[in-house]
Amino acid sequence: MAYENIELRRIFDIDWLLSDPQGLTKKLAIKGVNVDCEELAKKYRALNHLKFACDNLRSQHKIASKSIGKAEDRAKALAECTLLSEKVKEKEKEVQALTTELRSVLLALPNPPAEGVCAGGKENNQVVKTFGEKPTFDFEPRDHVQIAEALHLVDYARARKIADEGFVIYTGKGAMLEWALLQFFYETHYRDGYTPLVLPVMLNEMCGFTTGQFPKFQEEVYRVDDAKHFLNPTAETGIINFHRDELLKEDELPKKYYAYTPCFRVEAGSSRKEERGMVRTHQFNKVEMIQFAHPDHSNESFEEMLRKAEELIQALGLHYQVSKLAAEDCSYSMAMTYDVEVWIPSMGIYKEVSSVSNAFEYQARRGNIRFKDAEGKKRYVHTLNASGLATSRIFPAILEQYQQPDGSVKVPDVLKKYLPFDYIK
Fold this sequence. Notes:
Blueprint: H1 14-19, H2 21-30, H3 37-67, H4 74-107, E1 126-131, H5 144-150, E2 154-155, H6 156-162, E3 169-170, H7 172-191, E4 195-197, E5 202-204, H8 205-211, E6 229-231, H9 235-240, E7 247-249, E8 255-264, E9 283-293, H10 298-316, E10 320-324, E11 336-344, E12 349-358, H11 362-367, E13 370-372, E14 378-380, E15 382-390, H12 391-401, E16 409-410, E17 423-424
């Protein structure tokens, strides 16, 4: 693996581990991870002692090696040099073994939750905002699968034929609606001052490591034949690595980017009603926003990105809610996350269409993405991401929230400039 020999300090905040192991243990427990950070800190200090001892032995060996030619008893000097060489090798093995052990543990550690993030999983998520009212119908409403099939917007059967279960083909006006959504998102982000990127669909292993998806979640991606590359699971994975191993300028922060990509995920839900149709698939379309922010101002970036994601759904006229996620429902890489969740009438539940997250320096540390501050100190940036938006759930929400008594679907006003029709019939 490309990251198997990565420096330990690139994996996790060692200074935090050494300075407050008890506090870090409590933080990680909030995220559902039980690890004895005091014991981990002891092992890290032991590693440093081993390295120091190893360096001393190397120095002794170097001196002994140079003195062989001048020694009166060359055989004795050679034997002493050989013994030191063996001691160096043994100590190096100890260093390597403990380094490997520590690396394995550190690679499995998630980003500790931010202050104010509560413990627990989905059951402890908090709804912090609701927009609009749930749509009501004076007729028997249909679900998005029925609507899409009746209006020939999606072809599930042929998608299974040419790909497999968990894939969809958008057809006719359905394809045009999908593309209109992507155009709307794309143009809006450009006007908002974000820089567009067109990314490769195939990424290397360091991309997965930097964003925190590897090694823990490496089985959730689609590998290509050489096994050293994988298909993009989200534009975040590519954009975060755009500045990997770079030193940014402080006055350029925050740097704002966005990209449209098809996204590929191995898991694609089940046959449960809430995961039918296009709500959870192996491949879906998404526009993603990313910011590389100054650590002193990343909360401002977070609020801006949440607002941008909400503005898109508001412009579409869709009913939604915003939830602050509990620690165990946040992804491993994120310190805090707010989900923007759109209402799907047939399911009677809200489904996430944008996760707005702040990783603090967790990803930047792994990717070595820093800036030099006014005092000349090199600091890690904070990385933030937000979907803007995932069409695989916006599309069903439009079909269901905008369905008409005659079976047609009204086009949201904001999309009409991209489409040659006002109703999908």
